[in-house]
Structures are given as structure tokens and as C-alpha cells.
Amino acid sequence: MNQAARDALRAAALAGVKQLRDGQVRDGRGGLCAMGVLEEAGLKLELARMHDTRVDGCHLCGAAKQPCGWRITSEISLLCHVNNDHGLDFIGVAEKMPVTDAL
Fold first, then answer.
1. How high is the pLDDT of residue 22?
2. CB neighbour list of residue 103: distance below 8 Å, 6 or more residues apart
């Protein structure tokens, strides 16, 4: 995850955006998951890069799959796992995701 994505997550937390953790990207009432925050922030290139960046499971807990059964094989699937399954707020997600220098 690049710095712009981290900043977007921190800004969402500071703005009081309701964080969704149930697999929904947005709830139609202003609630967003971490991926939804990045979409709303217009970080399309970073989202595409995260889809293409391979990971080998979760670096925090060692899980190879999310509880829903989806494999954790890309940064975007890791983002969803960290958002949904680790109970971290947006700031925690920003701090725990792997750092990249990509724009």
C-alpha cells in the first residue's frame, strides 16, 4: 500500500467514516470498507497495483485464506482480510498493511 492510500484511510478515520467489516464495500449510508475508502479517494491506479501485487497469505496471522474462503494472494485480498478479520480501525489498517513506494 502506498502513502496516498494510507493517508486516505487515516483521513476517513479522522472524518468519522463508519467502517464496514462484513464484505460490503459501501452501505449506501456513508459506510465504507477499507477498499471503498480507496475507491472514494480516487486511487484507481493504486487499487489496480494492489490487485496485481502478489502476497503469500497474511503477514499478521499467517492465514492463507479469509474465513469466507477467499485466498489471500494479492495485496487487495490482504486489505480485505485485514479490514474484515483483524478488527482494526482504518488507522490500524493503514499501519499494518505492507508499505510500497508505488504512486
1. 84
2. 2, 4, 45, 46
**Tens digit of each residue's pLDDT (9 = 90 or more) over 53-100:** 999 999 999 999 998 888 999 999 999 999 999 989 999 999 999 998
Contact by Cβ (8 Å): 74, 39:
no
Residue with grid cell 483483524, as numbered in its chain: 86
Per-domain boundaries in the chain: 3-96
Q: Collapsing DSSP states into helix, strand and coil, what is residue 66? A: coil
Compute the distance between CA of residue 98 and CA of residue 50 in angstroms, rounded to an integer. 11
Put simply, whether the predicted model's pTM sits higher than 0.90 gets the answer yes
Quick: pLDDT tens for 1-12: 999 999 999 999
Closest CA to 35 of 87, 95, 78: 78
